[in-house]
């Protein structure tokens, strides 16, 4: 194997065996502050691939930042082969506002729909472009961490394209990650850019509004960080054996939206990623006087992998993340 070399991302340059912090510079804000995307580069003592982890492309999803902070504490460059790049907060303006998108940019609000952006575009497009340029330059494998954000909770779920490299990355997430849904021609997100560049990229979901209590949020961060550590072992970047989920499912997502406004109450006893039959009751939406106005039911055989966690619901709001299971994946 060739010798390790220095790796630069933005203003951060890490020599072999070192960790560097910096930013991917974007622009200056009206108050004079610099807008840059924080980055941590952990460069191993031996050569190897580059795994790139990014969080908070949606600003109401703090699970990615927590995962990156745990990995920054735990991954020792002296034991690492290759490089781990951590981008805890991609969408800085959205994160500061704790909103999905940056409220300063109403033209390209959702960064996960306009990626890789444009160098001369709207503000969020410029942030996306700056991130994308560096990611494509150095990364072999990319994981974009998401959650249910301000309105929902999502259980351990992966979106991946059909290509062998991305499927291998999904499998490398290890125990507990048994649902890898099809991302059919993903456009507008980092995964799509990585796949177009001939690399591997996946979108990973875990956590959200109902899982920010001390115990739950720490568990979510631990679970995500353990999965990334498993990925590093899978690619022989860290010593030790990677572990794998025995039975994994694939399929497609159905987004179940609220047919009426009201108060959303999930069916008591409903469990994530347990088999359901078409027509099984998932939730009831109650009107202001307590009348059940609508029921949500399983559209096909499959499983629920995410649910609304903010009971106040407006017609058209996201209510249920439903997986139509279409088969199993190789162990
Ligand atoms: Zn998200």
Descriptive key words:
single chain, alpha+beta, OB fold (Dihydrolipoamide Acetyltransferase, E2P), 2 domains, 11-stranded mixed β-sheet, 4-stranded antiparallel β-sheet, 17 strands, binds zinc ion, hydrolase activity, acting on ester bonds, Succinylglutamate desuccinylase/Aspartoacylase catalytic domain-containing protein, metal-binding
What does this structure look like?
- The chain is an alpha+beta fold and 331 residues long.
- The chain has two domains: 7-246, Aminopeptidase, CATH 3.40.630.10; 253-329, Beta Barrel (OB fold (Dihydrolipoamide Acetyltransferase, E2P)), CATH 2.40.50.
- 23% of the residues lie in helices and 36% in strands.
- It has seven helices and 17 strands.
- It has helices at residues 63-74, 92-97, 111-114, 123-138, 164-172, 190-196, 214-234, and strands spanning 7-9, 12-14, 19-28, 34-43, 46-55, 81-87, 141-146, 152-160, 180-182, 200-208, 248-257, 262-266, 281-286, 292-297, 302-308, 312-313, 318-329.
- The strands form three sheets. Strands 3, 4, 5, 6, 7, 8, 9, 10, 11, 15 and 17 form an eleven-stranded mixed beta sheet that branches. The chain has a four-stranded antiparallel beta sheet with strand order 14-13-12-16, with no helix packed on it. Strands 1-2 form a two-stranded antiparallel ribbon.
- A hairpin with a 5-residue loop joins β13 (281-286) and β14.
- α1 (63-74) crosses α7.
- The longest helix is centred in the last third of the chain and has 21 residues, at 214-234.
- The protein is globular, with a radius of gyration of 20 Å.
- The relative contact order is 0.13.
- The model has no long low-confidence stretch (mean pLDDT 97).
- Zinc ion binds next to loops.
- Keywords: Hydrolase, Metal-binding, Zinc.
- One of its GO terms (molecular function) is metal ion binding.
- Its cofactor is Zn(2+).
């Amino acid at each position: 194997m060739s010798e390790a070399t220095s790796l630069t991302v933005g203003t951060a340059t890490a020599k072999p065996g070192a960790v560097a912090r910096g930013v991917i510079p974007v622009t200056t804000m009206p108050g004079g502050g610099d807008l840059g995307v924080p980055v941590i580069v952990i460069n191993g003592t031996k050569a190897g691939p580059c795994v790139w982890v990014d969080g908070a492309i949606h600003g109401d999803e703090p699970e990615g930042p927590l995962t990156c902070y745990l990995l920054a504490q735990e991954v020792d460059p002296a034991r690492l082969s290759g490089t781990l790049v951590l981008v805890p907060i991609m969408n800085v303006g959205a994160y500061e506002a704790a909103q999905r998108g940056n409220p300063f940019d109403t033209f390209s609000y959702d960064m996960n729909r306009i990626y890789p952006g444009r160098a001369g575009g709207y503000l969020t497009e410029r942030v996306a472009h700056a991130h994308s340029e560096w990611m494509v330059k150095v990364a072999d494998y990319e994981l974009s961490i998401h959650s249910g954000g301000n309105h929902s909770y999502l259980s351990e779920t992966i979106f991946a394209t059909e290509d062998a490299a991305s499927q291998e990355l999904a499998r490398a997430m290890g125990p507990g990650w048994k649902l890898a849904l099809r991302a059919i021609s993903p456009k507008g997100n980092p995964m799509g850019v990585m796949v177009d560049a001939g690399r591997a990229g996946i979108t990973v979901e875990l956590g959200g509004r109902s899982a920010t209590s001390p115990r739950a949020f720490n568990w979510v961060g631990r679970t995500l960080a353990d999965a990334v550590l498993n990925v590093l072992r899978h690619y022989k970047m860290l010593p030790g054996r990677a572990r794998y989920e025995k039975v994994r499912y694939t399929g497609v997502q159905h987004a179940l939206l609220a047919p009426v406004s009201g108060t959303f109450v999930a069916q008591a006893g409903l469990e994530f990623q347990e088999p359901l039959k078409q027509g099984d009751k998932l939730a009831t939406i109650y009107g202001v006087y307590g009348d059940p106005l609508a029921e949500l039911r399983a559209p096909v055989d499959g499983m629920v992998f995410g649910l609304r966690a903010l009971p106040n619901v407006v017609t058209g709001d996201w209510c249920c993340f439903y997986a139509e299971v279409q088969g199993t994946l190789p162990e």
